[in-house]
TrEMBL record:
EC class name: hydrolase
Protein name: Adenine DNA glycosylase
SUPFAM superfamilies: DNA-glycosylase, Nudix
EC number: 3.2.2.31
Catalytic activity: Hydrolyzes free adenine bases from 7,8-dihydro-8-oxoguanine:adenine mismatched double-stranded DNA, leaving an apurinic site
Cofactor note: Binds 1 [4Fe-4S] cluster.
Essential cofactor(s): [4Fe-4S] cluster
Native source organism of the sequence: Flagellimonas algicola
Amino acid sequence: MSFSQKILEWYYIHKRDLPWRSTTDPYKIWLSEIMLQQTRVAQGMPYYHKFLENFPTVQDLASAPEEKVLKLWQGLGYYSRARNLHATAKMVVVDYNGNFPNTYKELKALKGVGDYTASAIASICFDIPEPVVDGNVYRVLSRYFGVDLPINSTQGIKYFKDLAREVMDVKNIRDYNQGIMEFGAMQCAPKSPNCESCPLNTSCVALKEIRVSQLPVKINKTKIRQRYFNYLVYLDKDNRTILEQRQGKGIWQNLYQFPLLETENLVGHKELTQILNGNLKDSTNKVAMYNKEPIVHKLSHQHLHTRFWILEMDELNSKAIPWEKVHNYPVPVLLADFIKTFKI
DNA sequence: AAAGCGGGGTC
DNA sequence: GACCCAGCTTT
């Protein structure tokens, strides 16, 4: 039996019943695929339901304010996905009259849709024989065929895409593509896969050569930047505070936060007030350190050593917002956790 | 080709 | 701690 037939047989027995598996609606498939980029099914699932409730159609999503999209996305990470999701919804409504394009090329031209996602939508929605290559597929193919080309090198990416195309089942691309991904997630797991019960264990090169734990090969060395954040939580006598929207290129683009003072190192009360002194308003009554032990918020390539400072004010300008409204704004998890625990 | 981009689960 | 997750975009 061929590789693809074994995958399909395994899939029909072991497939999970996931909500996006019972539809070929491009809107729902696209939504699920964007959400699941670099994200586990369990983490993305509640967001998928939440988005469909709030935005039943692509028109609903397109006509929503970006702030609402970001708020619903809050906690899922990689927020460019939410911004691109919104932009693509508008493009589909305006340029495609509300109907998603049905070719790989047009799909890939949509914002936030790369090679993987275009292939996934094309195959699942339109039965186009285009192989998907995600993290699961890299793992399955590299092990089964014993390929040690780095999966994140230019050569490796092309090699595995070509290999995936050779071994795919063009007659049943929908199930095959989802099957090989599911197989990678459930059976050919990253750590201690269950090779004993694997239907491919008689022909798997990595198993035969005892290289399962060494494949796939990945070259990466993301060095982590240490940053020191001081969030200035202003509070006036009416319990109003200041929130700003993050601008520019870095993390958390377009999300909201308290005014941020970033320093080169951890600073104490004295240094902070010295730095602030030039800008400190006369109406500042008290500056209090909220957390003595800095909170270390860990991102993929940054560790954010964070202190919150409470600045009691006589008055704030007219842009101040009541504390009860703070929870309406999209904020990073770091701030959401603080807001949750902080009692006025 | 390499870096930047979140947050959470698992071992 | 290290690694990974239905990757994409920018530099």
